[in-house]
Amino acid sequence: MANVTQALGDGLASLRSLRGHHLARRTAGAGGLRIARTGLTFAAAFLAARWLGPAEYGRYAVALSVLSLLAMFGALGLPQLLTRSVAVYEQRDAWGLRTGLARRTLQYVALLAIVLVPVAAIATLGGFLPWPPPRDSWLFFATACLVVPVVALRLMGAWLIGREQAMAGELADGVLRYLGVLLLIAGAIVLGIPADGFVALLLHGVALCTAAVLVALYLFRQERTLPHPVPRFETPRWLLAALPMMWTAGLTVVLRNTDIVMLGAMADTSAAGIYHVATRMAELMALPLGAAEAVLAPIVARLWVSRDRSRLQALVVRAARLLMVPAGLGFLVFAFAGDALLGIVGAGFAAGWLALTILVGANLARVACGSTALLLNMSGFERDTMWAVFFGTVANVALNFVLIPLYGLEGAAIATGGTMVMWNLLLARAVIRRLTINPTIFANPA
């Protein structure tokens, strides 16, 4: 208990010493919104699962996983590039480059919409899709169309985070979206709309588009007050930096969704639906880490540019120790009461308890490794992140292919949890080698 108290005190002291009480307040605010987003996500999944049942919810869950995969490629690695670049450009007063980056980002979103929607329509109407089955062809088309608002929200959220507006970024990339999904699904239940996975996806799309419009209006009003000189473009350099981040983000999404997609294909949609709820519940473990990283990302970029390694070392280690407190408590809750929590969702979902326990254990190890990917990406070593996650993804796909037929839900959890630990250890090793900083909870923060 004394060690936990000491870690908590060290973490708070580190955060306050870096930016005073303002950083602590921003971290708490972003954490609160991250909790709200996760709560809304889970509440929306809970209502959808009870409304649709395991089979139809499985269709909906698989469609959301495919949407995440497509949106990852659609984002082209730009979210993390925007966060890093906006922070650095504002620190250096490079407003021309900042304006050029904003213009290229808008042009890219427009191009994505112009290309993706017709291609998806041709593929659907022409019957060129080997998957999904004919019944779900229009489900695929709707999923592909929703990539555009998802990408737009992610880019706008990353831009706001780069401006050290983590709370606005959390609202943009999650809270508004899932609040809308929750309200629309609740409305469908009240109105007695027949349970159908395709209808649930359409409601999700309405919430997405509404959130994108609201965030765009907010960002436009904010940007009008800032300098906008003649834009300067470094498009090749931006692409070279963004592509490794795209592959890293893509591989991470594969790690997060491949097990669900493979369960739906190799087992059945009911197993996919149960496992989807278990994985989303396990992600609560990484909630404090994600909230802290949303605040720390621009600060890490600026500290690395100024070569202040001592303050950076103190920040990441003490923050990691602080974050282990809620992560450890969360592990105990899910390990001993996970079956009861899953049972609240509906009949049959408690079968995912063992898979949930395996996944929360892997997330605990992830938190212990520290903010490894953030450190590499914000300091210009995004290729190291890409390769570490690549090896983890290859292992993940292979293990899922072997273990799902043997052990079902638990096999998918073993594959995903084991590879999550592996690639985080590889990332920690890369941080120590490249930055001469130890990001784990075992390092000396001084």
UniProtKB/TrEMBL annotation:
UniProt membrane topology term: Multi-pass membrane protein
Location of the protein in the cell: Cell membrane
Pfam families recorded: Polysacc_synt
Keyword Transmembrane helix (UniProt): yes
Record's keyword terms, sorted: Cell membrane, Membrane, Transmembrane, Transmembrane helix
TM annotation in the entry: 35-53, 59-82, 108-131, 137-162, 174-193, 199-220, 240-265, 285-305, 317-337, 343-365, 386-407, 413-432
UniProt GO cellular component terms: plasma membrane
Source organism superkingdom: Bacteria
Protein name according to UniProt: Uncharacterized protein
Organism: Ferruginivarius sediminum
Upper classification of the organism: Bacteria, Pseudomonadati, Pseudomonadota, Alphaproteobacteria, Rhodospirillales
